[in-house]
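Q: Entry one of two.
A:
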Amino acid sequence: MRATFYRNIKTLSGKDIPGNMVFNSYKDDTICIVRRYVYPTLTDNNELAGAKVRAAAALWKLAHTNFVRDLGVYARAYNSQILNSKSLYLSAYNVFMMGVLKHPAPITTIAQLKTQIGESVDDWISMYSLPKVNLSVALTANIAP
């Protein structure tokens, strides 16, 4: 069926609450697809992933400001030296999450984080084989004072 819209297809993207329908545009806004909204089923993997992210977010708030600064220095150096133009820029939070979420179980305390990953950003870089970047300073600030 062919339909003509009185507005741009992009303006229709979203969810119609009473009808429980989802609208979205594809192929440079030339095709509009409408379907019923399907609620995803929760599994054990969803629960584990959610627990890991919640624990990592809580640890991020506890991290020392010098450690966060060092993560930011590494992320900026990575963005300028290694990153290709099609990828998204790294931030200090991205580097932190990459490290914490690689473990099979949630890391809930700073002490656990120190023993499993390391105390400084240099430890994180060597632990996860992150690409080496040219830095003028050593990233030795500890995660906790």
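Q: Entry two of two.
A:
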Amino acid sequence: MVKNDPKIAAKGLILFKGKYLLVLRNDKENIDPSTWDIPGGGIEEGETALEAVIREVREETGIDISPCKIFPIKNWTLKKNGIKLGGVDFLCILENYQEIKLSPEHIRAKWLGEREIAKSKKIPSWLKETVKLAAAKINNL
């Protein structure tokens, strides 16, 4: 990969019984430390975005989304600290509850409804928009 090539990521917005799983990044992360996020990370060479989101969610939360209903929500690009980033966010609908086992990348996890997320001043606007798009997708299923 050339230095200026964008890093490509896949992220999973996990939904269970009307609530979305958010994770709080630790304060040592390179991008957006100490902010609320959804599980995900870089797509590895030879891996599809779907394979990457399944792997990343499992690594970061211990949740296996492979048997779930998974839908792409949005593609995105941004530049942060001189690094070009791009990726796809997926909606992952859990059928059964699974225990969360956070990786060291995150220090906390919580399940929140769409209204709670929309009202929170601590949740980034991009994440609020992702939840809004996910809710619209669910209503059209």
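A: Comment on entry two: DSSP finds three helices and seven strands in the chain. The beta strands are 7-16, 19-25, 36-37, 40-42, 69-80, 83-93, 106-112.
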